[in-house]
Write a structure and sequence with these properties.
97 residues; single chain; 49% helix; mainly alpha
Length: 97
C-alpha cells in the first residue's frame, strides 16, 4: 500500500479513508477508551448516586463512519487486483538483497 500511496492516482480513491489508519491507531484508540472508562469508574464510585456522570463516548474510528452510512459502496477494484497491476508494472520486487 505504501508504494500505491506514493504513486497516487484514481485507483486509490476507494481506499483513501483507510490509508492512514493502521493497527497502532486502533491500539491507541483502545487505550484512550480504556483510560476514559477507568476515569469514569473512579469518578462514578466516588460520586453520590444522583450525580452519576454520563458514560464517556468512545474514540472515533474510521469504521464508525462506515456503519453510519446506510449505502456502502464496494471498491472499484480489489486490493489483490490492484497488487497484480502494480506487480505487472514494477515487477515482484526483492526484499533484503
Amino acid at each position: 500500500m505504501w508504494r500505491a500511496k506514493q504513486l497516487g492516482g484514481s485507483e486509490l480513491k476507494d481506499y483513501s479513508k483507510f490509508l492512514d489508519w493502521d493497527s497502532r491507531c486502533d491500539l491507541m484508540a483502545d487505550t484512550i477508551d480504556a483510560v476514559n472508562f477507568s476515569s469514569w469508574v473512579a469518578i462514578a464510585i466516588n460520586s453520590p448516586q444522583q450525580n452519576q456522570p454520563p458514560l464517556p463516548d468512545p474514540y472515533p474510528r474510521p469504521s464508525d463512519d462506515l456503519k453510519k452510512n446506510a449505502e456502502v459502496k464496494k471498491p472499484a477494484q480489489t486490493l489483490d487486483d490492484f497488487g497484480k497491476v502494480l506487480r505487472g508494472m514494477f515487477g515482484p520486487g526483492h526484499i533484503g538483497g
